[in-house]
Automatic annotation (TrEMBL):
Residues 5-54 form the DUF397 domain. This is DUF397 domain-containing protein. It comes from Streptomyces brevispora. It holds the Pfam family DUF397. The lineage of its organism: Bacteria, Bacillati, Actinomycetota, Actinomycetes, Kitasatosporales.
Length: 60
């Protein structure tokens, strides 16, 4: 399995209510719940991640 290097968003809440994102694997964006680092990981195509960010009105 690929080892993802997750990072926490700079918009993260102090109470840990956040997602973490890994961009270190080609053609894949991995997303997980920061409260469950050993839990499930959502794998997205970069185009899907870009569309998600656009709906939030933020850029990376």
């Amino acid at each position: 399995m690929t080892e993802f290097r997750f990072r926490t968003s700079s918009y993260s809440e102090p109470n840990g209510e956040c997602v973490e994102v890994a961009l270190n694997v080609p053609r894949t964006v991995a997303v997980r719940d920061s409260k469950q680092p050993d839990g499930p990981v959502l794998l997205l195509a970069p185009t899907a991640w870009d569309a998600f960010q656009e709906t939030l009105g933020r850029q990376p």
